[in-house]
Amino acid sequence: MTEYEGVIGLEVHAELLTESKMFCGCRVVDSVEEDPNRAVCPVCLGMPGMLPVLNRRAVEYAMRVALALNCTIHPHNIFARKNYFYPDLPKAYQISQYELPLATGGWLEIEPELGVVRRIGVRRVHMEEDTGKLTHTENGGSLVDYNRSGVPLLEIVSEPDLHSAEEAYVYATKLRQILRYLDVNSGDLEKGVLRVEPNISIRPKGTDQLNTRTEVKNLNSFRILFLATEYELERQANVLDNGGEIVQETRGWNEADKRTFSQRIKEDAHDYRYFPEPDLPPLHIDDAWIERVRAELPELPDAKIARYRNDWGLSRYDAELLADEKVTAEWFEAAVAAGGEPKAIANLLLNNLFKLMNESGQSLDEIDVSPEGLVALTELVEQQTINNNIAKSVLVEMFETGDSAETIVRAKGLAQVSDSDAILAAVQAAIDQNPAQVQQYLDGKDKLMGFFVGQVMRAMKGKANPGVVNQLVEQELDALK
Q1: How many domains does the chain have?
Q2: At which of 412, 443, 465 does a domain end?
């Protein structure tokens, strides 16, 4: 049988987080939560004689994305009419861009395997307006909600540089991360504000031809993107191995059967009869505007990860977790800026605070522990006022009550005991009470020292200075040799 490789490109549609729509003053609302057809006007409903006006903020959001994806932003932009007839399109055409898009020629680096970095081309980034939303009823009818009609939409089209379902998944998740870092999209696939559609074909491995492709639509999670892409690659291979031909078509995903299914024959660009939008003048973007937008770009995830590792000595794993969400990175950096030691803050945040958040269902912007509060807790450890184990229990109390670390330590008498005489008494008691373990230690079972340390810590309710405990246990046991 022929060995094939996938040839996959992704089309990503991202609604932009502007307050108003792309070509009118209607507010952008949550189409899932808002009552249908409440955020509409004659412009976005396509009433005769209504003229569109371009949303400047939407253009700047689109420019942010284009720059973050290393694209060239073109000074001369033209909007076009994309003509097709469907109930969710009130004008019977969509205002989009075709021959002269906002930006082209970019790239995004992904790492599908540890140490394997691939640069995926970004063919184009262009602006358009979203359509309405259809809901099909059980009696065969359909309902249309135009709240979403006219919402600013960005289409990001990759080159067909992806070769597997895994690479498609990694590319899509990284692109979503960047969109969220740029504050231009919430990344919520379930609400449809971010939609990912793979174009999939296969070819014999080692060749470079581009063959007939299919497009899979209506994928509302990255897990389904992975499953649908994997299924479609296997289906196309089976078709070709059995002497069949791939049909250019749009396919959907059946979650119950875990398979794709044919929806309609795929249209080509000429089927839409694109022509320049006569009601919008050309959009000119000068260098000064581009540089203003570039200066406002935040530090992106890859740069943060590199800085966390190089400047603060964090592990790759910890750096990636901290940079995964912008809100987490900002909280962590606020703690470091407040004087926190980066590794100590990272350990408590990732290993302890995240656990408490998961159990309570709260996010970082909802909890009562502040970055400064966590720094104060780590300072108590550095000053040897409390040890690491006590710090973890204090953090739980901080999370539940909102009290400061110092208040909790003082109120509960949790300050660490470093008095050698008090600890020595507990060490001698542990030795006297465990003669069998003492003899085993003297016979060469050195690991039993940990047993005696545990006995002392238990006797002193975890408040003893671990360093002093270890030193005195070793001293007293060795004196018996």
Answers
A1: 3
A2: 412
